[in-house]
């Protein structure tokens, strides 16, 4: 007998709007095989999700080099200071991906995971794995949907977009079976600096410094200005969904303005053995 959850999953797929069907169909068979392989493969274990805030240091990354971890975007700028490498490397911001494509192609030591829509206008990064995306109903005004954001711990269904790669990585971690997710370097503080606005949501950097590396955002680079309120809605959804699934999310960042998650010192976390 076919399990009820499989029947429901197939029904969701059949009745998806056309634009969502494309996101599913573009995922290759090898992608699907890998996603099935890693689903629940780290059941009961602990992992770290690394943010790129100013409080992140190479010395703290050295402390977690034996832990499972996710990292994103320009984390590679700190690689010359530490032997640590994330197990999983992710990017969903197409500006980051397009402007750092050569560096990302040359990265080694991590499994590269990307939402399939990241490559709508770019050649796919070799040796990467893509997962389906569950897009918002309104990209420009996501909070116009009272149900935003969708949350999915099912890699075959797709990962919900929450306007921050951390939200994506939390879903990936839960889908892989991790039961404790520790956040590090998630300062949740942004100073606009001297940016000039080019068009809605896209800025031109003239000295923006909101990250661990002084050259993270060089002058002239395009970037998406974050909406902290939208991010907080996504984080609150992650917290409530994780709690319902018996997953603990703890914020170990040295400095943070984010109050959604339980706080705990990094040293206290590391003093506990990982499952």
Rg, rounded, reads: 18 Å
Main CATH class of the largest domain:
Alpha Beta
Overall geometry: globular
Model regions low in confidence, pLDDT < 50 over at least 5 residues: 5-11, 13-22
The helix content is: 25-40%
Q: What is the number of beta strands? A: 13
Mean pLDDT: 88
Tally of helical runs: 9
Structural class: alpha/beta
- Number of domains in the coordinates? 2
End-to-end gap:
34 Å
* Major β-sheet annotation: 8 strands, parallel
H/E topology pattern: HHHEHEEHHEEEEHEEEEHEEH
The CATH architecture of the largest domain is: Alpha-Beta Complex
Spatially, the strands of the biggest sheet line up as 5-4-3-2-1-8-12-13
Strand content: 15-25%
Task: Give the CATH topology of the largest domain.
Answer: sialyltransferase cstii, chain A
Properties at a glance:
29% helix; 275 residues; sialyltransferase cstii, chain A; globular; single chain; three-stranded antiparallel beta sheet
In a nutshell, what does this entry contain?
With 275 residues, the chain is of the alpha/beta class. The protein is 29% helix and 17% strand. It has 2 domains: 217 residues, sialyltransferase cstii, chain A, CATH 3.90.1480; 33 residues, no CATH class.
């Amino acid at each position: 007998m076919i399990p009820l959850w499989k029947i429901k999953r197939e029904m969701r797929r059949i009745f998806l709007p056309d634009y969502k069907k494309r996101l599913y169909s573009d995922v290759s068979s090898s992608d699907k095989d890998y996603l099935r392989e890693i689903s629940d493969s780290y059941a009961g274990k602990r992992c770290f999700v690394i943010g790129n805030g100013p409080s992140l240091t190479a010395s703290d990354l050295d402390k977690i080099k034996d832990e499972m971890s996710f990292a994103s975007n320009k984390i590679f700028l700190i690689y010359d200071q530490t032997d640590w490498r994330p197990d999983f490397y992710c990017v969903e911001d197409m500006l980051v991906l397009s402007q750092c494509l050569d560096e990302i192609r040359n990265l080694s030591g991590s499994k590269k995971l990307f939402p399939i829509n990241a490559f709508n206008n770019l050649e796919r990064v070799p040796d990467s794995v893509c997962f389906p995306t569950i897009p918002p109903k309104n990209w420009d005004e996501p909070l116009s949907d009272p149900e935003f954001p969708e949350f999915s711990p099912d890699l075959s269904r797709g990962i919900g977009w929450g306007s921050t790669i951390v939200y994506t990585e939390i879903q990936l971690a839960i889908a892989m079976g991790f039961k404790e997710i520790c956040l590090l370097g998630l300062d949740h503080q942004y100073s606009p600096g001297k940016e000039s606005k080019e068009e809605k949501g896209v800025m031109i950097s003239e000295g923006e410094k909101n990250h661990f590396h002084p050259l993270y955002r060089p002058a002239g680079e395009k970037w998406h200005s974050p909406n902290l309120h939208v991010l907080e809605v996504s984080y609150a959804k992650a917290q409530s969904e994780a709690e319902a699934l018996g997953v603990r999310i703890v914020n170990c960042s040295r400095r943070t303005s984010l109050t959604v998650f339980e706080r705990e010192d990094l040293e206290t976390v590391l003093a506990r053995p990982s499952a």
